[in-house]
Amino acid sequence: MARLHTILLGSLLAVGSFSAAQAAGQVKIATDATFPPFESVDSSGKLVGYDVELMNAVCKAAELNCNVIAAAWEGMIPGLTSGKYDALISQLTVTPARRKVMAFSDIYETPVFRFVAKKDAKLDISPDGLAGKVIAVQTGTPMDAYVTKTYPKATIKRYDGGSAPYLELSAGRADLHMSYEAQITHSFLNKEDGKDFELVGPRLTGKDAPEFGEGVAIAVNKRSTDLLAKINAGLAKIKADGQLDALNAKYLGEQ
Asked: Which PROSITE patterns does the protein's record reference (predicted)?
C-alpha cells in the first residue's frame, strides 16, 4: 500500500508540474543539440538547425510562448514523462513502443537511414558480411534498434551523443556508423574529417524496417492533449503556407 501511495504522489507531482508550466505561460521544449543539421549549438552558443527553426515556426503559428533548450538525449524522454519538459523535438521517430509512453504530433518528416564507411572498404552490407565488424550508433535510437536486431554477429558500440560515433569512425575504432542520411552528409561527409568516407548500403526508411518508425514528429506528454492540439494546428499552418517546404529545401535539399 505504501508503494501505491508513492506512485499516486508521484503522479500528482507530475500533474502539478504541468499546471505550473501552463500557468507560467511558457512551453519548455527539449532537444538533443548534438545532431546537426537538425539541432546543434553554433559558435555563439545559440541553438540552431532544422528542428529548432521548425519548432519556433510552429510555436509562432500556434501563438505559443516556447523556450527550446538543449538537453542530454538519455534524459529527454524521462524528462517529458515526469513533467520536466512539455515537449521534445529531436528527430524523434514514431514507433509503437514510444507511443506507449508519449503522444506525438502529426508526422512532419520521413528520414532516410544509411551506413557510412571508409571509401573502397568494399563491405558486404548483410548480416554475415558484417560479422565481426564494429558498428557505431547513438544509443536508444532507431539506428541502434535496427543494427542490434539485424547484425547480431557484429560488435555494436553505443554513444550518448549523435556526434561521438564519427570520432570513432575517423579514429578507426569503428568500421561503420548508421544515422540519418542528411545528418551523415552535413555533419561528416561535407567536412574535412569525412573526405575519405562515403555512404554505403541501401537507403532505408520505415517501409523497410519497423525499427525506423512511421516518420518524425514532436513528442508531448500523453496528458497534454490541449498542447498537442495547438502544436498540430501550428504544424498544419506552416505546412499550408510553405514554411515547411522552405525548411526542407534549406536543410535537406528537398524542393
From this structure: SBP_BACTERIAL_3
